[in-house]
Structure prediction request, 127 residues.
Amino acid sequence: MKIEHIAMYVVELEKARDFFVKYLGGKSNDVYHNVKTDFRSYFISFEDGARLELMTKPEIIDADKPLNRTGYAHIAFSVGSKDKVDELTERLRADGYEVVSGPRTTGDGYYESCIVAVEGNQIEITV
Prediction:
């Protein structure tokens, strides 16, 4: 069994899609639009076959997202090396994204950083 895809609602669909394409190498399909409900979505596909569905609809609410909350905490992306973690983290920081941890080696041995991006959601970058 495998996870087929992960989905997240966003307010700014195009901006979210651009983030995952620009910084994490995702490939986007064309927008799906249900004209009856005004639901729109993109599937972002990554090199290893993982997929992320980005979705929006007019009545979506962008509630506060404190860093310490229940539910999904972050999406982690492996970039292949410590140097690439460092490079991408610094690129994101330079582009104005908040780095909330790292790059660092965690107590359980992961080398990672965590940023806040895509409407307050955390993205982890790891080896």
The helical segments are 13-24, 82-94. The chain has a mean pLDDT of 94. The radius of gyration is 15 Å.
